[in-house]
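Exam prep: given the inputs below (a chain plus magnesium ion), describe the expected output before reading on.
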Amino acid sequence: MRTDVILLRFGELMLKGRNRSRFENQIVQQIKRVLKPLPKAALRTESYGRMYVELNGESYEEAEKALGKVFGLLSFSPAIKTIPDMKAIEEAVLLAMNRLPRTPQTFKISVRRVNKQFPHETFELHRLLGGHVLKHFDGLKVDVHEPEVDLHVEIRHLETFVYSESVPGPGGFPLGSNGRAMLMLSGGIDSPVAGWFAMKRGLRIEAVHFHSYPYTSERAKQKVIDLTRSLAEYAGSIHLHLVPFTDIQTRLKETCRENLIITLMRRAMFRITEQLAERREALAIVTGESLGQVASQTLANMNVIGRAASLPVLRPLVTMDKLEIIPLAQKIGTFSTSILPYEDCCTLFVPKSPSTNPSLKVVERQEQWMEEWLPEAIREAVERTETLLLKPDDKSEEDRLF
Ligand code: ATP
Ligand code: MG
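Solution:
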């Protein structure tokens, strides 16, 4: 199938107002990044936020896959490029019809005549090009209201684009255009999906993972590194903060009421994440929580746990069922890693009957009894956090920061 250029479309919000040039720069960066493996492909930008990719012989299928990872991209159209000449346009229109997966019963032509000097007027072009197509396809009819195929012909000064397909992009906002957030990344199915949604909404994320080495294995850590790398396909690179949580977990287990350990652990996690957020100038915490999914995600627990943080806690999956989350995890490419069996830190300390309705007062009182050691242990965990900068699947580029 011949595709010369890909026309790109962005969300309305991106093209208007004061943020436009900032959004545009961010999206240009992301498009160039995903197109790097296709060195001949070139991004062209024009005024009014129009952009298109010249493939210069690179594979359209590869480019389509790559563009599916650019947030802020609403849709795109693979197009044939030709010169602004009637004969050439007629040929391109036939080519576009011939490459459809099957011949439609109805079609229409939509001309955009950007080049006002082009010898034929728009209405005349509809008639001429429509007639040309009808001559070559038996039984085909024009339907201007609900055509099966809408063949767009955009006649510009130096070139003409012909296209009929519109492929949906991921939508959302350009990465980073809405600021930075810390993603609590567990190694399960949910939190990577939550991270993807946060990025889709324009947040640059940094992942925070709590591990209980040696109770949790090196492989559990590797799993979270791999998940972060998968998410980095959508961002270029992502920082992963690995927080040593063993001391806090074991001391909590010794001191607190057994049924409250999960609640207290999660509050400690939020506090640590918040301190890391402050260091990294992030303004929100993202989690993979989904209302009622497990004992620690009842509304009462969410309330008591969430109060440990003063930053906004974003829970993109809060109203989703597991059965809705799983296909998303498959689609974004994290599912197969998420279902690897290695334990994460919480499963090891799960009590027989965790409280589903904890009282904030009781929890706070328990924490008061831990005043002597807990705040210090939290500070220490932050200090001993190890940070990696991870890129998609390129194991050599691992970079230890602290
Ligand atoms: P997930 O599939 O994301 O692990 P889950 O269904 O297993 O979620 P929980 O284990 O209750 O749910 O965790 C709820 C949320 O708390 C997770 O989505 C994640 O954001 C955060 N979380 C849990 N454990 C960890 C961890 N070890 N490190 C970082 N964040 C964690
Ligand atoms: Mg989990």
